[in-house]
Amino acid sequence: MAGAAKRFPVRATAAIGALAALVLMLAALPWLLSDYALSFMLSVMSYLVLTVAWALFSGTTRLVSLATSAFFGVGMYTVAMLVKLMPLYATFAAALAVGAALALVVGVLTLRIGGMFFVIFGFGLSEMIRQLMVWWEINKTHTMGRYVFVPFDATLIYEHLLGLAVIVFFVGWRLRRSRLGLALLMIGEDETVARQVGVNVPFAKVAMFVVSAMFITLTGALMAPRFGFINPNFAFNPLVSFQVVIMAFLGGLQRLWGPVLGVIPLIVLSELLQTEFPFWFSVLLGLVFMVIVYFLPRGATGLIEDGWAALGRPLEWPRGVTGPLVDAFAWLSRPIFLPRGVAGAIEDLWLKIAPRDDEKR
Amino acid sequence: MAAVLEVEGLTKAFGGLVAVNGVSLSVAPGEVLGLIGPNGSGKTTLLNLIAGTIRPDAGAIRMDGEDVTRLSNHRRVRKRINRTFQLVRMPANMPAIGTVMAGVLYGAGERVRFKDAGYVAAGFLGELNLLLKADRRLDQLTYIEQKRVELARALATRPRVLLLDEWLSGLGPGELEGGVSVVWSLAAQGMAVILVEHVMTAVRALCHRVIVMNAGAKIAEGPPEAVLRDAEVIRAYLGDDDARD
Question: How confident is the model over A154-210, as pLDDT tens digits?
C-alpha cells in the first residue's frame, strides 16, 4: 500500500512530463514544417478540438449531435462580422458568448427530445442558421460574404488551437474522474436510473452541451482568420458535423485519446479523396463511415485494446503446433456429402449466414 | 411512531383509466408496509407516484411533514425516497459499482469526494454480498445479483423510505429467505419499507401492515393475518389458489 502510494506520484510526474514534452514539440512544429505541412497540421488540430469537444457531450450521453457546424459557423461568422468593429481577441470573446448563449437555448429546447429527433434537430439548426444568414446578408446588408484580413497568420492560429486542444483534453480528463462525468454516462445508459440516483438530468445535459459548444465555437472563431473570405455557405458547412461524427466513431468513444486515432487518418484520407476524386468525395466518405460502424463498433481504440489484451494473454497450444494442422487436414479430407444437391448446400450456407427468426430458436 | 411518509388522496389517470384513485397511506420508520392486489390494480403506479417517476393528478405526498408532491424525481431522491424497479434497471455497459458510486455521489448521504466514492460504494455492495461482483456488468450477473445491485444503488442514496417493486419475485426458496432477511434488516435499521409483492409467504413473513388494492382503490388495510384471512378479499382479488393456503 505504502509502496503504491509512493510510486504513484512518480508515474504521474513522468506522465505529465511526457505530455508537456509532446505539447512543446507540437508547439515547435510551425518553425520546422513547410507551409503545406502546417496547413495539414492546422486541419488536424482544429478537428481534434472539435472531435474531443463533440465527444465530451455526445460520447457520454450518446445523444449524437449534428449541431457542430452550427456552433463552428457561429464562431467563424461572428468573428467575420465583428472583425472591423473591434480588436480580434474581443471578437473571439464575443463569438464565445454568442455560442454559449445559443447552446443554452438549444440545450433547453431539446431537453425532451432524444435519439433520431435530436440528430435531425442539430442538422436542421445548422441549416436554419445558414439560410437565415444568407437571407440577412442579401436583404439587409447587401453582401454575400465578408473579408477577414487580420495579422493572425497560420502559426498563431496553430498555437492557439494547440492551447485549446490542451484545455479540451484536460477538461475531458477531469470529466472522466468527476461526479458530472459519471452522471453523464448514466444518462447515456438509462435516464430513468440516472434520475433515480439523484442526478439532475436536465442540468447535467445542458451544462455539458454548453461546455462542448463553447469549445466548438471558439475553434470556428480561431479558424476565421485562416480564410480571407467567408460567406454563410462556407461557415455553416454541414460536412464539418458529419466529419466530426465519423472521426469520433473511427477513433472510438471509450477512450479520451480515441479522437487522435480518428482525426489523423480521416484528414489524410479526405486530403487524398479531395485531390484525387473531388466529385466522389462525399460518397467515399459515406462508405468509410459505413465500414467503420459495421466493422469497428468500438473504433480504433477498441482494436488496439483487443490487440493489447491478446498480447498479454499466454499463448495456448494444448495440442501442440500440429493440432491445428490435424484439424485443417481433417476438414479438408472430409467426404463431400450433398444429400440435397448443390442447391441444398447453398440453401444451408445461406441459412447459416442469414438465419430466419424461426430457425434461431 | 410518527409516520415518515404520508400520502393523501393520491390520484392518477391515464386517459380514461383511473390507475390510482384517492389512495391514502402512511408508513413509519422501521415499518414494512405491503401493497398487494391483482395485476393492474395500480400498485406499481402508486409506487411510481411516490418515487416521483410520474406526477399525480391530485393528492399530496409528505415526507416528515414536508410537501414533496411537486418535487421532481431526483429531488425526492435527495429527500431520501428511493426505489427499485419491477424489471431490473441497471446501466448495461457500466460495472455494478459505477451505478452504486453514482448513488453515493448524488444521493442524500454526506458529501464524498469522487476518489473516495468507490470505497463507500464497495461498502454498500459488500453489505449485500456483492463485493466480488463489483466490476461485473449487467450481463455478467445473475438475476438475483442484478436485483441486489439495484438495491445497493438505492441504498447508496441513503433513503429513509424504500420502495421495493416485486423485489422478492422470481427468487428460489433459499434465495427468498436471504431476500426476506435483507429487507428485514433494513427495516430493523429504521428504514420505512413499502413493498409491492405477489409472493404471499414473503408478505406474511415481513409486513407489519398490508394494504390491498383493486382497480386503483384501497379496499382493505390491516395486519397481514387479518387481511389475508378476509375470505372476501382472498377470493375476489388474490384468486382461489391463495385462498387455500
Answer: 999 999 999 999 999 999 999 989 999 999 999 999 999 999 999 999 999 999 999
Name the residue type at position B154. Answer: A
CA distances from A30 to A47, A261, A357 (A): 18, 22, 59
Provide, for chain A, the percentages of residues in helix, strand and coil under a 3-state DSSP scheme, each rounded to the nearest 5.
75, 0, 20
- Residue A53: closest CA among A38, A33, A41, A67: A67
Instruction: Specify the DSSP class assigned to residue A31.
Output: G
Element holding A284 (H helix, E strand):
helix A281-295
Is CATH 3.40.50.10190 correct for B1-80+159-245? Answer: no
Asked if residues A269 and A40 have their Cβ atoms less than 8 Å apart, the reply is no
DSSP B183-206: HHHHHHTT-EEEEE---HHHHHHH
Please state the rounded mean pLDDT for residues B124-150.
92
Query: CB-based contact (8 Å) between B45 and chain A?
Result: no
Cβ of B153 under 8 Å from any chain A Cβ? yes
Chain A residues with beta carbon closer than 8 angstroms to that of B85 = 192, 196
Residue A273: φ, ψ to 5°: -60, -40
Nearest Cα to Cα of residue A84 among A150, A145, A134: A150
SS3 call for B178:
helix
Q: Cβ–Cβ of B94/A194 closer than 8 Å? A: no
What is the pLDDT confidence band of residue A91, given thresholds at 50, 70 and 90? very high
Do the beta carbons of residue B141 and residue B149 sit within 8 Å? yes
Instruction: State which H helix or E strand residue A177 sits in.
Output: none
Task: Indicate the residue of A192, A199, A200 with minimum beta-carbon distance to B102.
Answer: A199
Contact A83, A91 (CB under 8 A): yes
Q: Which whole number is the average pLDDT over A259-280?
A: 86
Query: What ipTM is given for this predicted complex?
Result: 0.88
Is the separation of the CB atoms in A204 and A56 below 8 Å?
no
CA dist list (Å): B64 to A215, B4, B81, B235: 45, 5, 11, 37
pLDDT recorded at residue B1: 62
Amino acid type, A99: G
Contact between B114 and A178 using a beta-carbon 8 Å cutoff: yes
Q: How far apart are CA B74 and CA B85, in angstroms?
A: 15
As a whole number of angstroms, the distance between CA B180 and CA A108 comes to 44
Q: What pTM did the predictor assign?
A: 0.84
User: Which chain A residues are within 8 Å of B101, Cβ to Cβ?
Assistant: 182
| Burial readout B197-229 (b: 16 or more C-beta within 10 A, e: otherwise) | bbbbebbebbbebbbbbbbbebbbeeebeebbe
3-state secondary structure of B138: helix
Query: Which residues sit opposite B62 in a β-bridge?
Result: B6, B67
What count of other Cβ atoms lies within 10 Å of the Cβ of residue B10? 24
Contact A21, A157 (CB under 8 A): no
The domain limits of chain B are 1-80+159-245, 90-158
